[in-house]
Design brief:
mainly alpha; 3 helices; flat; about 0% strand
Length: about 55
């Protein structure tokens, strides 16, 4: 049974992963072929994260 006080616990990492999965699903459904590794990296913004961590 859930607590009555409205103390919802949010796992921000899990929510971020769910959002990324959703973005991949949208990209895959819009694509005519299988997504390339480069396309997947673009959807997941891998290059942006890599650049942000460097500088």
């Amino acid at each position: 049974m859930a607590p009555v006080g409205g103390t919802a616990v949010q796992d921000h990492v899990a929510l971020a992963e769910i959002e990324l999965c959703g973005e991949l699903i949208i990209a895959a459904s819009a694509a005519q072929e299988r997504l390339s590794l480069e396309s997947i990296d673009e959807v997941l913004k891998v290059a942006e994260e890599r650049d942000a961590s460097r500088g």
